[in-house]
């Protein structure tokens, strides 16, 4: 079930037809396993495809087998306190220094942020340029906030992430320097499509006096954009 769209040589199933993925999404949603669905989605719909499409051979060999085996967890970090729908507001910055990039900034609302081994981080590398970097757990200067208090799906550990002079090897640049926005725009439609399967609910909940079975389906997931740190 994990890594359906990742080539077999890296441990995936190599299935390009997205309908297979959609069946998995819908069946997990039917079972009410919303957080499991999101975790798998980060491999199959988000980080996996970024690595397959944009990664070097070395990056693919290094990270894809663990994602397919379920031993590596991943996240993608775009959103910032001042950059949500409009990613042009991103202020996290990466500056090249020899064979490394020095990353500074913060992200918020990051699904899997609390436990991801790999985080694809979107950062500004020029006045009008964004680039993608793979930040790995344990890199000095990389830290995480407490899980935010969401209305549900708490296994996803949605958190803030902080980058304080994180030295990211140049080998962890994902895709082409300065083409980060294009890389995102090419892949976000699939992510949005998979989001449509998440709220699927098996038993229609019919409002009183309603003549329709389907018009009042209740989403199994709710996005709480007012989330705040969860009390311990
Ligand atoms: C549970 C959860 C998990 C998340 N996981 C991740 C993740 O893993 N990685 C990640 O990067 N982000 C994640 N996000 C962040 C999510 O992608 C953002 O919340 C989303 O992009 C919207 O940004 P915002 O909350 O800043 O809202 P805003 O951008 O401030 O938008 C607020 C409202 O204004 C509307 N709006 C905005 N701009 C316009 C406009 N120009 N014209 C008309 N209407 C407009 C929007 O449609 C929305 O209704 C997550 C969020 C939640 C709640």
TrEMBL record:
GO terms for molecular function: acyl-CoA dehydrogenase activity; flavin adenine dinucleotide binding. Residues 194-232 are annotated as: Disordered. Its cofactor is FAD. It comes from the Bacteria. Residues 1-70 form the Acyl-CoA dehydrogenase/oxidase N-terminal domain. Residues 75-166 form the Acyl-CoA oxidase/dehydrogenase middle domain. InterPro entries: Acyl-CoA_DH_CS (IPR006089), Acyl-CoA_Oxase/DH_mid-dom (IPR006091), Acyl-CoA_Oxase/DH_mid-dom_sf (IPR046373), AcylCoA_DH/ox_N (IPR013786), AcylCoA_DH/ox_N_sf (IPR037069), AcylCoA_DH/oxidase_NM_dom_sf (IPR009100). Keywords: FAD, Flavoprotein, Oxidoreductase. Residues 209-224 have a biased composition (Polar residues). Belongs to the acyl-CoA dehydrogenase family. This is Acyl-CoA dehydrogenase. It comes from Amycolatopsis taiwanensis.
């Amino acid at each position: 079930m994990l890594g359906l769209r990742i080539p077999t040589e890296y441990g995936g199933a190599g299935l390009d037809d997205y309908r297979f993925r959609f069946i998995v999404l819908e069946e997990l949603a039917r079972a009410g396993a919303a957080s499991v669905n999101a975790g798998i989605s980060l491999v199959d719909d988000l980080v996996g495809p970024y690595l397959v499409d944009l990664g070097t051979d070395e990056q693919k060999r290094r990270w894809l087998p663990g994602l397919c085996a379920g031993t590596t967890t991943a996240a993608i970090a775009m959103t910032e306190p001042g950059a949500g729908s409009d990613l042009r507001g991103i202020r996290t910055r990466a500056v090249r220094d020899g064979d490394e990039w020095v990353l500074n900034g913060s992200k918020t609302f990051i699904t899997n942020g609390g436990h991801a081994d790999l985080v694809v981080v979107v950062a500004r590398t020029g006045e009008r340029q964004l680039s993608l970097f793979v930040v790995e757990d344990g890199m000095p200067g990389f830290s995480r906030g407490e899980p935010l208090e969401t209305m549900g799906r708490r296994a996803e550990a949605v958190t803030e992430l902080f980058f304080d002079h994180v030295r990211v090897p140049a080998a962890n640049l994902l895709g082409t320097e300065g083409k980060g926005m294009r890389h995102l725009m090419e892949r976000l439609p699939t992510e949005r499509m998979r989001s449509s399967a998440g709220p699927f609910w098996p038993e229609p909940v019919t409002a009183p006096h309603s003549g329709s079975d389907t018009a009042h389906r209740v989403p199994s997931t709710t996005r709480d954009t007012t989330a705040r740190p969860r009390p311990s």
